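In the design runs reported in the main text, the only information available to the sequence generator was the tokenized backbone. The following block is the verbatim input for one such run; it is reproduced so that readers can re-run the procedure and compare outputs position by position.
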């Protein structure tokens, strides 16, 4: 079995005459947490939507778990889940009903039991029977992510998983993501929180100007920028400093 869970080559996408993705290339290995970083409008959501078969690319070769997104979209869908940037909950249903509905759609055996386990794990047991539109932003987000775990997909796409969460809820989501990757799930997340990528990601890719301009582990990115030395005190650049330096350097070309 291939060790590459996600392969993207020459991905292009334009809206009308606006070229958003101009040839995006990257690979994600199985069990890896891969963070796609980029400013507002860089094309992160567009990329995730194309990889998860919600949107068609103009060109490029994309495979997920060995299946081609253009030729075998059903196979791709069977192996993935997507937690979008905006909540996909049905507000009229309770948290438990939302989970049950998706569990049944995904053919999970004993959906009630699995729903209860997830409610417990995400701290939603007490809110289980309340309508989801009455949940706080953080609770909605947790329920969204809980729903994406149903059916144990091999690849999970998380578009800005912790936007709008308080620090405690964010830490909880980070722990869940690490735990999933530890069990072999491949995770592609987008984020604008560089601290999030720094904490979580095995590798980081920076999407800028329609292309991936840098990919690497945090250690590799840090090597590109030697530590500043001030009176024998070594200061490692943060990912935020690296990110800003890289995109401003590109902007000058
Ligand atoms: N369906 C669409 N029709 C037209 N333009 C679109 C469409 N979807 C996205 N765009 C444009 O493509 C560009 C990239 O959008 P995208 O949502 O992928 O960015 P993003 O990196 O996810 O940004 P954010 O950080 O704000 O979520 C933006 O300029 C956006 O206006
Ligand atoms: Mg987005």
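Verbatim output:
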């Amino acid at each position: 079995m291939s060790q590459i869970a996600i392969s993207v080559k020459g991905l292009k996408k334009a809206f009308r005459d606006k070229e958003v993705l101009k040839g995006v290339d990257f690979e994600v290995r199985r069990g890896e947490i891969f963070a796609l970083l980029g400013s507002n409008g860089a094309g992160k959501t567009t990329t995730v939507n194309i990889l998860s078969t919600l949107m068609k690319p103009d060109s490029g070769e994309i495979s997920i778990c060995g299946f081609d997104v253009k030729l075998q979209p059903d196979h791709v869908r069977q192996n993935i889940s997507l937690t979008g940037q905006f909540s996909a909950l049905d507000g009229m249903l309770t948290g438990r009903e939302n989970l049950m509905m998706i569990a049944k759609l995904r053919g999970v055996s004993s959906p009630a039991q699995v729903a209860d386990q997830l409610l417990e794990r995400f701290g939603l047991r007490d809110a289980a029977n309340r309508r989801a539109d009455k949940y706080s932003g953080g609770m909605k987000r947790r329920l969204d992510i809980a729903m994406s775990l149903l059916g144990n997909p091999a690849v999970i796409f998380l578009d800005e998983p912790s936007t709008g969460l308080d620090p405690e809820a964010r830490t909880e989501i980070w722990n869940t993501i690490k735990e999933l990757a530890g069990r072999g799930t491949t995770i592609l997340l987008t984020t604008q929180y560089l601290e999030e990528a720094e904490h979580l990601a095995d590798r980081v890719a920076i999407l800028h100007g329609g292309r991936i301009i840098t990919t690497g582990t945090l250690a590799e990115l840090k090597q590109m920028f030697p530590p500043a030395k001030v009176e024998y005190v070594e200061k490692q650049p943060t990912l935020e400093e690296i990110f800003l330096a890289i995109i401003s350097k590109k902007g000058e070309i």
